[in-house]
Design brief:
Layout lengths: L5 H11 L30 E3 L2 E3 L2 H4 L1 H18 L15 E2 L5 E2 L1 H4 L15 E2 L1 H7 L3 E3 L10 E3 H9 L6 E2 L10 E2 L1 H11 L4 E4 L2 E6 L9 E8 L2 E13 L2 E10 L3 H4 L2 E9 L2 E7 L2 E2 L13 E4 H7 L5 E9 L7
Bound molecules: zinc ion (ZN) (4 copies).
Length: 329
């Protein structure tokens, strides 16, 4: 046998340690060659008793356990990452007390003593556990609401941020409504609880905001349903002081950010021989106007609104298109 083959041989032999229970003693009482393999702990080696091989009974139960442990080992490892304070899974940095009890960095800020053993809490990271975590699959933290996704440690936060099962705040623009619920209930909530929300079907509609100059009229909201989805159109008026006011308008999808990225919308204003057109991707209702980064909505000043309104009403033509869905290729 060439030297180069021996590592393979060794690997094959140690693999047989797992199947040792299938090994029967040969008629002459000798143990077959592969049964002489020992596991690192040595516990799988059958003991010889006067020409026969006695397999300790604790090994008898080992095979079904091992098959089961393949799944449960991961569950066991995942369970080690449960924070003893908030019961969430500990994300990096994984912190520990001097005795090794783990704690999430969020709860670490709230305690001075280890919640398990009551000694002073340190800021020591458990780098080994952080490495172990990268190889594990964790349940989504919204599993209590019905999410069945299990995600890699590195993808967990991103998934949870845009998880369709997470509770959504009511997207009605006046911020007064305290309703929270799953995405699938948002549409019904909007039409039942907010009676001034108008609904319209079709991918090319007119969103008519009436009496835009009226003092005290601050927001106009409509739900546009097309492509099997619901989109929330909003126009908000904000007073900036000294008679100065601005209008913000945008389309947000009643869906996750990932879903919203599959669409495109444009808003056009066309009146009094003037045309204005805005095109963008809808945001998710997860994002309020205030949280939009880079001011990704159409901003109109008072003068522009006056130029485009007729009889005090502003007609916004909204067209929503589905763009190429990368998942459908
Ligand atoms: Zn915690
Ligand atoms: Zn401790
Ligand atoms: Zn989820
Ligand atoms: Zn509401």
């Amino acid at each position: 046998m060439s030297f180069g083959n021996s590592p393979n041989l060794e690997r094959r032999q140690s693999a047989t340690a797992m199947t040792i229970l299938e090994v029967e003693p040969t008629p002459d009482g000798e143990v077959k060659e592969e049964t002489s393999d020992t596991s690192p702990a040595g516990e799988l080696v059958p003991e010889r008793e006067g020409g026969s091989v006695r397999v300790p009974s604790r090994i008898e139960t080992r095979r079904p356990l091992e098959a089961k442990e393949k799944g449960s080992m991961e569950d066991f490892l995942v369970s080690l990452f449960e924070c003893p304070v908030c019961f969430g899974y500990i994300m990096p940095p994984v912190l520990q007390c001097a005795r090794g009890h783990l704690l999430c960095s969020f709860c670490r800020q709230k305690v001075t003593l280890c919640p398990v053993c009551r000694i002073s809490m340190t800021n020591i990271r458990s780098l080994a556990m952080e490495k172990v975590a990268t190889k594990l699959i964790f349940p989504c933290k919204h599993s209590q609401y019905g999410c069945r996704e299990r995600v890699l440690y590195g993808e967990k936060l991103n998934h949870e941020e845009d998880c369709e099962w997470r509770p959504y705040n009511c997207p009605y623009p006046d911020d007064k409504c305290k309703w929270k619920g799953p995405l699938k209930d948002v549409y019904l909530h909007l039409v039942h609880a907010h009676e001034n929300v108008i609904t319209m079907e079709g991918n090319d509609i007119i969103f008519l905001a009436t009496n835009v100059n009226l003092e005290g009229a601050l927001d106009w909201t409509m739900v546009q349903s097309c492509h099997g989805r619901h989109f929330l159109l909003s126009l908000e008026k904000i007073y900036l002081g000294e008679g100065c006011q601005q209008y913000f308008t945008a389309c947000r999808m009643i869906g996750t950010m990932k879903d919203a990225a599959k669409f495109m919308y444009n808003i056009s204003l066309d009146a009094n021989n003037r045309t204005l057109r805005w095109q963008s991707k809808p945001r998710s209702i997860r994002e309020s106007f205030a949280s939009f980064t880079h001011a990704d909505f159409l901003v109109l000043n008072k003068m522009t609104v006056e130029q485009f309104s007729e009889d005090g009403n502003l007609a916004l033509n909204v067209v929503i298109k589905k763009v190429q869905d990368p998942d459908e290729n």
